Amino acid sequence: MKLTKILTKKLTSFWLVSLAAVAFVFLLCALMSFVQLTYRFQQNKVAELESMIVTHYQQQGIAQLDTWLPAVLKAYHVVQFQLLLDQQALYSYQSDVDRGESGVTLYQRIIEPQTALSVRFELTSPLNNYQFSWYELLILFIGFGAISVFVRYGLKWITHELDGVELLALRSKMIIEGDIQGAKLSTAKGRPRLINRAISKLINDLEDAQQERGRLDQFIRANTFLDPVTEIGNRLFFENRLTALSHDNKMVAYGVVFLLEFDDDALMNVQTDIEANKAFITQIVAIIPPLVSEYTDVIFARRSRLQLAIVVPQLSLAEADLLADRLIRRCLLVKHHQIANHDNYLHLGAAFYKAGDQPSQIIEEAEMALRAAQLQRLNTWFMYDKGAVDKEMAKGSVRWRSFLEYALVNKRFFLLQQPVLESDNSLLHCEIFSRVRDNQNNEIRATLFIPMANKCGLMPQVERLIVEQVLFNVMPKNDAIYCVNLSMDTLTSRAFTRWIQSTLLEHRPLATRLIFEVSEDLFIKHQQHPQLAKTLTMLSKMGAKLSVDHVGKQVVGTHYIQTYDFDFVKLDRSIIRQVHERPENQLYIRSLIGGLLRSKAQVIAEGVEILEEWQTLKILGVSAAQGPFLGDIALIANDV
User: Which residues form a coiled coil (predicted)?
Assistant: First the structure.
C-alpha cells in the first residue's frame, strides 16, 4: 500500500509537472513570437520610410522635407532623426516623445551607396507603444480560465483513476492479510474495472472452495464418526467422547450411561424388510434428542445395529430414574408391524458413575443393567446402582443457588491456570480455570458447579468475577496472555456486555492480552443469536482475541471459524486421545489444518497426556498444545 501511494503520487506529480512545462513552453514561444513580430513590423516601417526618403532625395533633394517628413516621423514614434551625407547632417529632427524606461532602438544605415547618403533613427521600443485593449484582455482571461478549468478537470480525472488503483491495492493487501470478507465488500470503484472484476471473481471462487473444503471436512468426519443410517455417532464416536470425559482413565465428574437395545429375535423377517427396520430405528433416534436437550454435553450414539448409547453428564440418580422411565415410554410409542412380541422387544440398562470410575467399568455395569432388564422378559429398564452417590449431587437447585450467591458475595472462587505451549516449548498463553470453596473449605470442581450455575442463571456474575480477577489481580504481575472461557448466557447478557466494553475501553492495553473462549457446540447451536455475533465482534474490535474450543467434539462444518474470524481453534481431547494410534483422527486434523491454512486461526490441541500424542500432533501441523504432559494446572490466585 505504501509503495502504491508513492507511485500514484509520483504519477500525479509527473502529470502536473509535464502539463506545467508544456504550458510554460507554449507561453514562452508565444511571447517570443509576439516580440519578434513587433520588432519585425517596426523594421518594415523603417524600411518603408527609408524608401520614401531615397525617392524624395533623388527627385527633389532635401527641398520640401519639412512639409511631410515631421508628420511621418511623429506617426512612426521617432525620437530623433538625422539625414547624413558624408557624415554631414542634411536634415535633423528631434521629437518631444519620452524615451521611456525601456530606452530606444537605434537604426543607422546607408540608404544610397552611390552618394553615401545615410540615415540615423532612434525609435521608442515597439513594446512601449502597444497597449492591450479590453477585448484582448477578455480573450486572455477566457483563455487562462479555460486552461484552469481543463487542468482542474484533468487533475480530478487522473486522481479518480488512480484512486481506483489504490482500491485495487487495498483489496490486494486485505487478501494477503487474510481479510477475505473485507476484500469482498470493497468492490465499488476499483480501476481498471477488468482487474477489479477478476479479483471479485477469484474471491468468490475462493469462498466457494473454502466452503467446499469445510463440507469435505464434514464429509470425512461424517463417514468416520457417524452412523450412515441414523446419522448420529457410531461406536468409534461414542468411545472417543466417553474417553474425553475421563482423565488418567478416570471419570472427572458424575453422570449416567444408558444402553437402549432392541431384541433381535422379536423382529421377524429382518432381511426381507430392511427399509422398514431402518425407518423404525430412525423414528426411535428422532424421539431421544428432545428428551435430553435440556442437559449439556450429552453423548448419543449407535454402538451396534440394535443398540443405542446415551451418556448424560451431571445427572443425579433421581433425575436418571425419571429420564429412563421417559425414554422407555416414549420409544414404546413407535410401532413396527414386524415385531412378533410387543411386550418384550425393548430394554434399557443404566449405570450411574461418579468421579474416579473407569470408563470400561462403567460400560460393563451398563451392559449388566441391560442384561438384567432383558431377564425380566418385559419392555422395561434397570438401573445399576452401586450405592455411591456424590454428596454434592444431593444439593437441590435452591441450595445450589444459595451457595453460589454466598460464594459470589464472599468471593469464595479461586483461579488456576494451565500453560499453552508452542511447538518450540515457548509459552503462547495461559488458560484460566476456576474452583469454589464450600463452607467446610473443600474445593468444588468447575464440572460440578458450572452446570448448576447455568441452571440458576448465575454464570454471567461468576464469569464477570473471574474476568475482573484476571484483569486487575493477575495481569499486573506479569506480561503473559490469558484465556478466559465464556458461556452462552454471559455472551448474550447485555449487562455483562456493557460492563466488559466499558472496562476494556478504560484498560485498553490489557485488552490485547485477553483471549475469550467459547465452546463449539454452544456456538453452533446459537450462532444465529444476534447478541452473540454482536458481542464477539465488539470484543475483537477492542483488541481481544477469540478462541473456539472442543472443536471436533460434534460432527459439524468448520466454515464458521473463518466467518467469525477466530484467532485460535482448540481441538477437543476426544480427537487428541491416542491420536498416534487413530488414523481417522489424524485424517481429520490434517483436513482441518489444510482448510485453515490461509486464515489467521492457530490450531491448538487440548488434553495432551503423553509424548507420542504431542509428537504426532507436531508432525500433523498442530502449532501449540496444552495438557498434563506439557504442564499441570496451577493455582495463580486465591479467593477472588
Answer: none
